[in-house]
Amino acid sequence: MEVYHPRTWKERGLVWGVGVALATLVVIWLVLGWYWSREPDLFDVETVARQAVGGDEQRLVTGVYTVATTIHVAETLLDKPGGYLSNDVMPPGVFLDNMPNWEFGVVVQLRDMARALRNDFSRSQSQSIEDKDLIVAEPRFNFDTESWLFPPTEREYRQAIEALQRYLQRLTDPQQPDAQFYARADNLRDWLALVEKRLGSLSQRLSASVGQLRENTDLAGDPAATQSTRTAGRQVVRTPWLEIDDVFYEARGATWALIHLMQAIEKDFDSVLAKKNAHASLRQIIRELEG
Predict the structure, then answer these.
(1) From CA 155, how far away is CA 136, in angstroms rounded?
(2) I need a surface site. Which of 89, 104, 138, 256 has the fewest CB within 10 A?
(3) pTM of the full structure
(4) Domain ranges (residues) in the chain
């Protein structure tokens, strides 16, 4: 283009040339920022699970769908366009706001699932031994989301993914019975209870965007309950104006991750859900999240 020809720069002068360079850089940043802010598409958990076991039907044992989906969610978090942005210190990533909040919503769900895998799904009872790879994965997903160096967040999350991959490999190997995934109703109940609390918090924060007068129900239903600090019987709850979009994108990230995790859970807990006649209820939850 003529505007970038050296002769044009020489004729127009240094100030003009610097201005053109800066304007071009800003345009590039804007385009990259738009591209990097696009949320990943939904993926098929069935395909992901089959790819994880190399298409071998015999290796599609209980737990493969959940673990393989958790791994793919984490890989998508790190490998989507622009990569992981929450710890960026250079433009345009440092100026982006929506995608880092989306990422945080995903990370929270990964942390909860990693904790459930370590404490519940992989253990037959409360006094059983923890899985050696899940001991590695769970704390690494709980690493600081904004660490740029020493070490960078991505490195910790990659190590968590590698630990989950080792667990998955052992899970599908009949010669390694020490790796287990127990699809029991109590395990599922505990994870769903945690999901309920996460979604409840997000729902309250989203609804508070317009400000609400709420009754204090902290101790409702338990006449013997107490709390450390006395609070007002009524209070106005409002999400700060500058944080409304942050909560919105955090909720979108959380629901994106939960859609896949619940689809995987439905596969692994098929017999449990069938016995409780709960397939329709879980599918309705997934539909609500997709909407």
Answers:
(1) 13
(2) 89
(3) 0.88
(4) 63-212+235-290
Taking the C-alpha atoms of residue 281 and residue 67, their distance in angstroms, rounded to an integer, is 22
Q: State the amino acid at position 137 in one-letter form.
A: A
pLDDT per residue over 137-176, tens digit each? 999 999 999 999 889 999 999 999 999 999 999 999 999 9
Q: Who's near 121: CB < 8 A, 6+ residues apart?
A: 63, 66, 181, 182, 183, 187, 191
User: Would you state the torsion angle of the CA atoms of residues 132, 136, 142, 143, taken in this order, to the nearest 10 degrees?
Assistant: 170
pLDDT in tens, 269-282: 999 999 999 999 99
Single-letter residue type at 256: W
Hey, is 115 helix, strand or coil? helix
Q: Are 237 and 211 in contact (CB under 8 A)?
A: yes
Q: What would the two tokens of residue 153 be?
A: 């967040």
